[in-house]
Design brief:
The complex is a heterodimer of chains A (about 290) and B (about 450). Chain A has about 290 residues and is an all-alpha fold. In chain A, helix 3 crosses helix 8, helix 4 packs across helix 5 and helix 10 packs parallel to helix 14. The longest helix of chain A has 25 residues. Chain B has two domains: about 200 residues, P-loop containing nucleotide triphosphate hydrolases (Rossmann fold); about 130 residues, Coagulation Factor XIII, Chain A, domain 1 (Distorted Sandwich), CATH 2.70.50.60. With about 450 residues, chain B is α/β, with parallel strands linked by helices. The N and C termini of chain B lie far apart (about 85 Å). Chain B has eleven helices and 20 strands. Chain B has a six-stranded mixed β-sheet with strand order 5-6-7-3-8-9, with helices on both faces. The radius of gyration of chain B is 27 Å and the shape is globular. In chain B, about 25% of the residues lie in helices and about 30% in strands. In chain B, helix 6 packs across helix 8. Classes of the chains: A mainly alpha (about 290), B alpha/beta (about 450). Chains A and B meet through helix 1, strand 1, helix 3, helix 7 and helix 15 of A and helix 1, helix 2, helix 4, strand 4 and helix 5 of B.
C-alpha cells in the first residue's frame, strides 16, 4: 500500500510539473527568439546539423576532400588570372597568400548563404508536417558548413610555411571575425530563406548575388586604392570587415579599424533584423511555401 | 501501466487536455490566371507580370478582408478565400481517445495542423495542456543517404524525443520494425525496400510517449500484418491513459479505438458524440443514387495524386445510377498525378448494401501500367464491369489511390451510389452468394443407362 501511495504522489507531482500549457492563437506580431524552446529542441538541432554534414558528401569518391578542393581550385585560378595575368596590386603581399586568406572565409560564407537561403524550400515537406522552431532550418546549414570551413583552414598551413609567416598576437583576434562571418551568413540566410518562401526568384538570383558580393569585397583585389571619401560607404558591406579582419589577423598586416567597425555594426544589425524578420513571417511559412 | 491510467483518472477526471474555441482557418487559393487573347495584350501582360505576380503572391498572406466587419465590397473581392475550418469548438478530456471523421476537404488535416502548431488559426484559439506529439505522416525527415540507425535518431528527435530517450528505446524500435530491418540497420535507407522503410518509420513513431498524441491517417501503411500490429500498439497507447486525437477514414478503427468522435463537414461540426453514433450517421447520410462525383477539394495539395472525379457510365457512356442486371457499365476515374510516382494504383471498390466488399479493381491490373513510374499529368481510367454478374442490389463505390505496401494517398468513401435493377435478371430470385454471375454451362446427355427404360 505504501509503495502504491508513493507511486501515486510521484505520479501526481510529475503530472503537475509537466502541465505544459500551449495556447495556439492567430499569428503575427513582432517577437524574438524563444530560447527556452530552442533549448528544448537542442537534440533535434544537433541531428539536423549533423544530417547536413553527413549528407553533403554522401556517395562521393573524395568525401570531405571536397572541402579542400573547392577553395584550392579557386585559389589556383585566381592566382593565375588575377595574380599572374592581370597582375592586380596586393599591397606587396604575394598574390597566392593574399587570396588564400580571403577565399577560405568567403567559400564558407557563400556556401552557407546559398544552403541557408534554400533551407525552407527544400525542407518544405517537413515544414508542412511537423512543428519545431523554424529558425533551426536556416541555421543548420550555417553551422554544418563550419566543418568544411575548419577543414579548409588546413590549406593555410603550407601556404604560411612556404611564405614563412609567423602568426603574432593578432591571431587571437581571429575568433571575432569568425563570429562576424557566421553572423553575416546567418543573417543573410534568414532574410533570404524567408523571402524564398514567397518568391522563388531568390533561388535564381542567388548565384548572381553571391558573385556580386564577392566582387564587392576585397577578395581578389586590395581595398587600399579606395579613396578616403568612399571608405565608410565601402566598409558598410559586412563582408569587407570579415575579409580585412582575416587578412590582418593571419598575415599580421595593420588592422584598419575604419573598415572593421562599420562592418561589424552592420553585421550585427543584419543578423538581428534577420531573426526579427524571420520570426515575423514564420507563422505563414507552412501555408505559403 | 494500469496504475498510471487509474492514477490519471483518479487525479482529476474533469481535466481538459485540448480545448478548441471558435476556431476558424481561412486559406487563399490564389487568384486565377488571366487569359490573353492577342499578342499585344500578352506582351503587355508579360511586361507588367513582375508587378502583378508580386501583388498576387503578396495577397496570399494578406487577410485584411477576412474580418467580420469587412464590408460588402471587399467580400466580393475575397472570393478566393476558402474557409477550411469555420467556427469550431470542442473539448477533449485527458485520457480520452477522440476520433475525427469527415469527407476529404472537410478540414480534418487543417485541424490537426493547427493543433500541431504547423499553421496558425485565422480566428479563435486552442489550448493544449500537456506535452504534444503529432504524427501527420510517418518518416518525416527521413533521409535516404542516412543509415537506418541514423534515421531513427533524426526522425525520433523530429517527433520530439530526446537523444537519451531514443538511446533507451533503440533496441525496441529496431525489434518492432522487424528482423529484416534489424539486419540492415547500418545500411543507408535508400537500399531498403519501400516496405522496410515504412516499417522502420512507423516503428519510431510507435515509440513516442507524449501526453497527447495527434495522429493523422497513418495506420493505413504497410502490409496487413504490420497494420494489425500498429492498431494493437495504438490500442495499448490508448489504454495507458494518454490523450489521443485520431483522424481516420477507417470507420472500424474509429469505433474500436475511440470513445467519442467528431464529424466535420465543409469546415464545420456536423456531429460530435459517442463514436458509434457519429459513425452510423456519417455512413447513412447520403442515400440518394449518385452517378457523378467530383472532388470538392480543388487543391492545392502536397499529395502526389489528386482524384478529380468519378463517374458511373452506362454502356453508351451516359452517366447513370441505375443499371440493368444484364448490361455492362463503366466506372470512370479522372485523376491528376502531380509528382512522378512509382507503383501508383488507383482502385475502386464495390460495396453492397450489407457493407460487404464485393470486389476491388485497380487501374494497374493491365500490364502496361504495372510497376511503372507515372509521369505527372491528367489521367483517365475507365473500367468496364460486365453485365450478368452483380446481384440486383444497391452498391457503393469507394476510390483509393495508393502505392502498394507503402502508403495510401487518398481515400474517398462511398463517392457513388447506384442500383443494379432486376431488369434482365433471368436467374431465380433469392439466390445466395455475394454475386450472381450468369455462367456458361455445358450440359449434354452423354448416353443411356443400361436397363432403364427410355420414354421418348
Amino acid at each position: 500500500m505504501s509503495i502504491k501511495a508513493s507511486f501515486f504522489s510521484r505520479l501526481t507531482s510529475s503530472n503537475l510539473e509537466s502541465k505544459l500549457v500551449t495556447v495556439i492563437k492567430p499569428g503575427s506580431g513582432w517577437q524574438f527568439v524563444d530560447f527556452n524552446e530552442l533549448r528544448e529542441y537542442r537534440d533535434l538541432f544537433f541531428f539536423l546539423v549533423w544530417r547536413d554534414i553527413k549528407v553533403l558528401y554522401a556517395q562521393t569518391i573524395l568525401g570531405f576532400s571536397w572541402a579542400l578542393l573547392q577553395p584550392l581550385a579557386q585559389i589556383v585560378i585566381f592566382t593565375i588570372i588575377f595574380g599572374k595575368v592581370a597582375k592586380i596590386a596586393t599591397d606587396g603581399i604575394p598574390y597566392m597568400l593574399f587570396s588564400t586568406v580571403a577565399i577560405i572565409p568567403w567559400t564558407y560564407m557563400s556556401q552557407a548563404m546559398s544552403g541557408s537561403s534554400q533551407s525552407l524550400v527544400t525542407n518544405q515537406r517537413m515544414l508542412k508536417k511537423i512543428y519545431f522552431p523554424r529558425l533551426i532550418f536556416p541555421m543548420a546549414p550555417v553551422l554544418a558548413r563550419l566543418v568544411d570551413f575548419g577543414i579548409s583552414l588546413i590549406i593555410l598551413l603550407p601556404v604560411l610555411i612556404w611564405y614563412d609567416i609567423m602568426p603574432t598576437w593578432k591571431i587571437l583576434l581571429l575568433p571575432v571575425f569568425v563570429i562576424q562571418m557566421i553572423c553575416v551568413a546567418a543573417g543573410f540566410g534568414m532574410w533570404s530563406s524567408t523571402l524564398a518562401v514567397r518568391f522563388r526568384d531568390v533561388k535564381h538570383a542567388m548565384p548572381f548575388v553571391t558573385r556580386m558580393l564577392m566582387y564587392s569585397a576585397p577578395i581578389v583585389y586590395s581595398a587600399s586604392p579606395i579613396s578616403e571619401k568612399y571608405r565608410l560607404l565601402y566598409s558598410l558591406n559586412p563582408i569587407v570587415g570579415v575579409i580585412e579582419g582575416f587578412r590582418s589577423c593571419v598575415l599580421n598586416t595593420p588592422l584598419v579599424w575604419s573598415y572593421i567597425w562599420p562592418s561589424i555594426l552592420v553585421s550585427i544589425i543584419f543578423f538581428v533584423s534577420g531573426i526579427l524578420y524571420f520570426k515575423r513571417m514564420e507563422w505563414l511559412f507552412a501555408d505559403v511555401v | 501501466m494500469q496504475m498510471s491510467s487509474k492514477g490519471k483518472y483518479f487525479m482529476d477526471s474533469r481535466d481538459i487536455a485540448i480545448q478548441v474555441k471558435n476556431m476558424s482557418k481561412c486559406y487563399r487559393i490564389g487568384l486565377k490566371e488571366e487569359i490573353r487573347d492577342s499578342f499585344g495584350s500578352a506582351l503587355l501582360a508579360f511586361i507588367k507580370s513582375p508587378l502583378n505576380n508580386y501583388r498576387k503572391f503578396r495577397s496570399l498572406y494578406k487577410f485584411d478582408d477576412m474580418r467580420p466587419d469587412a464590408n460588402e465590397e471587399s467580400e466580393k473581392s475575397s472570393s478566393d478565400l476558402i474557409w477550411a475550418l469555420n467556427d469550431i469548438s470542442f473539448d477533449i478530456k485527458q485520457g480520452e481517445v477522440f476520433g475525427v471523421i469527415g469527407n476529404n476537404g472537410a478540414g480534418k488535416t487543417t485541424l490537426l495542423k493547427i493543433l500541431s502548431k504547423i499553421t496558425n488559426p485565422s480566428k479563435g484559439y486552442a489550448k493544449i495542456i500537456g506535452r504534444v506529439a503529432s504524427l501527420l505522416e510517418v518518416g518525416t525527415g527521413f533521409h535516404h543517404e542516412l543509415t537506418g540507425r541514423e534515421n531513427i535518431y533524426l526522425n525520433g528527435t523530429i517527433l520530439g524525443m530526446s537523444k537519451k530517450e531514443i538511446d533507451l528505446k533503440f533496441d525496441d524500435i529496431v525489434e518492432f520494425a522487424g528482423a529484416e530491418v534489424g539486419k540492415f540497420i547500418d545500411t543507408p535507407v535508400k537500399r531498403y525496400s519501400s516496405g522496410m522503410e515504412v516499417r522502420l518509420a512507423f516503428s519510431v513513431a510507435a515509440h513516442l510517449e507524449p501526453e497527447i498524441l495527434l495522429v493523422d491517417e497513418v495506420l493505413a501503411v504497410g502490409d496487413a500484418a504490420f497494420q494489425k500490429k500498429c492498431i494493437g500498439k495504438m490500442r495499448s497507447v490508448a489504454h495507458e491513459g494518454r490523450t489521443v486525437l485520431f483522424v481516420s477514414h477507417n470507420m472500424g478503427a474509429i469505433t474500436q479505438l475511440c470513445g467519442r468522435a467528431l464529424w466535420l463537414e465543409k469546415g464545420q461540426i456536423k456531429q460530435c458524440g459517442p463514436s458509434s453514433e457519429v459513425v452510423a450517421s456519417y455512413l447513412s447520410h447520403d442515400t440518394e443514387g449518385k452517378a457523378i462525383w467530383s472532388n470538392p477539394f480543388a487543391g492545392p495539395t502536397d499529395k502526389e495524386v489528386l482524384t478529380r472525379s468519378v463517374r458511373l457510365l452506362s454502356k453508351d457512356n451516359q452517366p447513370t445510377h441505375i443499371t440493368a442486371f444484364d448490361s455492362s457499365f463503366k466506372v470512370e476515374l479522372v485523376y491528376d498525378v502531380l509528382e512522378p510516382i512509382r507503383d501508383l494504383s488507383v482502385v475502386f471498390q464495390l460495396i453492397n448494401s450489407q457493407g460487404t466488399l464485393v470486389f476491388e479493381a485497380m487501374d494497374t491490373d493491365v500490364p502496361e501500367w504495372k510497376g511503372h513510374t507515372r509521369v505527372p499529368g491528367k489521367y483517365l481510367a475507365v473500367c468496364e464491369v460486365p453485365g450478368n454478374l452483380l446481384k440486383p442490389d444497391r452498391y457503393y463505390v469507394s476510390v483509393v489511390s495508393f502505392v502498394e505496401n507503402v502508403k495510401i494517398i487518398e481515400v474517398y468513401q462511398g463517392v457513388l451510389t447506384f442500383d443494379v435493377s432486376e431488369m434482365g435478371y433471368t436467374l431465380n430470385l433469392g439466390r445466395r452468394g455475394v454475386v450472381s454471375p450468369v455462367l456458361e454451362w455445358q450440359v449434354t446427355r452423354t448416353g443411356r443407362i443400361d436397363g432403364l427404360a427410355e420414354n421418348e
